Amino acid sequence: MADSINRRWLLAQRPSGNLKDSDFELVREAIPTPGAGEFVVKVTHLSFDPTQRGWLAADSYLPAVKIGEVVRAGGAGEVVASNNPKFPVGAKVQGAFGWQDYCLTDGGGFWPCATLHPGMSAEHALGIFGTTGLTAYFGLRDVGQPKTGDVVLISGAAGATGSVVGQIAKAMGCTAIGIAGGKTKCDWVVETAGFDACIDYKSEPVAKRIKELAPKGVNVVFENVGGDILDAALANLAQRARVVLCGGISSYNAASAAEIQGLKNYMALTVTRSRMEGFIVLDYAPRFAEGVKALADWMAAGAIKSIEDVQEGLENAPATLRRLFEGKNFGKQLLRL
Amino acid sequence: MADSINRRWLLAQRPSGNLKDSDFELVREAIPTPGAGEFVVKVTHLSFDPTQRGWLAADSYLPAVKIGEVVRAGGAGEVVASNNPKFPVGAKVQGAFGWQDYCLTDGGGFWPCATLHPGMSAEHALGIFGTTGLTAYFGLRDVGQPKTGDVVLISGAAGATGSVVGQIAKAMGCTAIGIAGGKTKCDWVVETAGFDACIDYKSEPVAKRIKELAPKGVNVVFENVGGDILDAALANLAQRARVVLCGGISSYNAASAAEIQGLKNYMALTVTRSRMEGFIVLDYAPRFAEGVKALADWMAAGAIKSIEDVQEGLENAPATLRRLFEGKNFGKQLLRL
Question: ipTM for the complex?
Answer without folding.
Answer: 0.84
